[in-house]
Amino acid sequence: MKELAYREFVKEDFEDVMALDIRPIELREGQASTGEEPLELLALSISRSRYLWVITYKEKIRGVFGLSIWEEGGIKYGSPWMLSDDLPFASHSNRGLFLRTSKQLVRFMKSKVDLLMNIVSLENKESCRWLRWLGFTFIESQSFTFDRDPGLHFVW
């Protein structure tokens, strides 16, 4: 049995997801970009996502990610997001599985929309490195500030 796994979110996961020990940099990103408190932002992200999954390790939920979709001007946009504890970025025996599976899921997300896009703090180095590895492009001309941290838009 694999220790690290992904599966679709079910309503019974809600309490465990809301109790996640989310990485502090991700909490700062969310609060600075939306003004929402962390738990409110997490609940809002879950409710707005057309597709939603959880990351489990030894059957315990360690992260959640999803895809929000909207249309504007005839273009279908998707906003991928992920909130987790340190597990997906930690060095452990399942890191390769995390990377391969996340690449497959991002391809699935891209198949549902014309353009994937979101924002990330440059201080979130692990996420920036992972997003580049996944194939996202950072738009240097569209920089902004998360509170005091510089950030960039990423697209695919």
Topology:
Elements: E1 4-8, H1 14-18, H2 24-34, H3 38-48, E2 51-57, E3 60-72, E4 75-84, H4 95-112, E5 115-121, H5 125-134, E6 137-146, E7 149-155
Parallel strand pairs: 4-5
Antiparallel strand pairs: 1-2, 2-3, 3-4, 5-7, 6-7
Overview of this protein structure:
The mean pLDDT is 86. It contains 5 helices and 7 strands. It is an alpha+beta fold and 156 residues long. A hairpin with a 2-residue loop joins β2 and β3. It is 35% helix and 38% strand. The radius of gyration is 15 Å and the shape is globular. It has helices at residues 14-18, 24-34, 38-48, 95-112, 125-134, and strands at 4-8, 51-57, 60-72, 75-84, 115-121, 137-146, 149-155. The chain has a 7-stranded mixed beta sheet with strand order 1-2-3-4-5-7-6, sandwiched between helices. It has a single domain (4-116), classed as Gcn5-related N-acetyltransferase (GNAT) (Aminopeptidase, 3-Layer(aba) Sandwich).
